[in-house]
Write a structure and sequence with these properties.
Length: 202
């Protein structure tokens, strides 16, 4: 029987880092990386600061997944969504079939919190948590649009700054009394609010 591979599930920051570290110690154990997207690595934090710089998805990409997989001597299974794990049989079940594993590494990230919204536009709200979302955002933004951002945390404030610099009219909403309320002391939060307001953010 051939040795079942180490299966790494997810191929963004954590997924690619774990296989690079594994390969530093072990160049031969079979590795299979299974991921829902394209697998192309990119710096996710750049998504919330890239629009004003007019960065295209191609410019944000660090490498092509297929080339990186060849360099790291691993098999890559893209556009494959994991559905469940059978621990006793050591199998990962996906929408493209099942994969036996010797070890399973879960690096599938997190989903954005879904706010229970009502109304006929509720289904059109975008969450930008991965490259595919950024591509959709770029497709949907048209010059002069008014954009409402929900959540004045780090990423909401970054997107607000990015989109106001790109020329959009931006409203930032949050139940807290000021931006970054959970992270900054009141005085600093008020200064940030003033700076955003000066830029034209409501
Ligand atoms: C806009 C934005 C800005 C950010 N800015 C910062 C910052 O400035 N500083 C900072 O420290 N952090 C920042 N973060 C957070 C940081 O990017 C994440 O913590 C980090 O990317 C998490 O990496 P990960 O590999 O664990 O998960 P993810 O990057 O979410 O990767 C998950 C991978 O799993 C795959 N996957 C998911 N579900 C399945 C499934 N069912 N089957 C198969 N594959 C699946 C996905 O396709 C993807 O390849 C930011 C995040 C965002 C969204």
């Amino acid at each position: 029987m051939p040795q079942a591979p180490v299966v790494v599930h997810g191929s963004d920051l954590a997924g690619w880092t774990v296989v690079k570290e594994l390969r530093k110690h072990d160049s031969s154990t079979p590795v299979l990386q299974v991921t829902a997207g394209t697998g192309d690595p990119y710096p996710k934090p750049a998504l919330s600061t890239a629009y004003a710089q007019n960065k295209t998805p191609d410019q944000l990409r660090n490498a092509l997944a297929a080339e990186l997989a060849a360099t790291l001597n691993l098999q890559l299974q893209t556009h494959t969504r994991a559905l469940s794990v059978d621990l006793s049989r050591q199998e990962l079940h996906t929408d493209q079939g099942l994969f036996a594993y010797s070890r399973l590494v879960l690096t599938h990230g997190t989903d954005p919190i879904g706010i229970p919204l009502h109304g006929d536009a509720a289904a059109t709200v975008l969450s930008v948590n991965q490259m595919a979302d950024y591509i959709l955002l770029r497709e949907q933004l048209q010059p002069g649009m008014r954009v409402l951002i929900m959540g004045a945390g780090l990423i909401g404030c970054e997107f607000t700054n990015d989109l106001i610099l790109a020329g959009f009219k931006v409203q930032l909403v949050d139940p807290a009394p000021r931006p970054l309320a959970a992270l900054l002391p009141e005085q600093a939060g008020l200064q940030l609010q003033e700076a955003l307001t000066t830029l034209g953010v409501a």
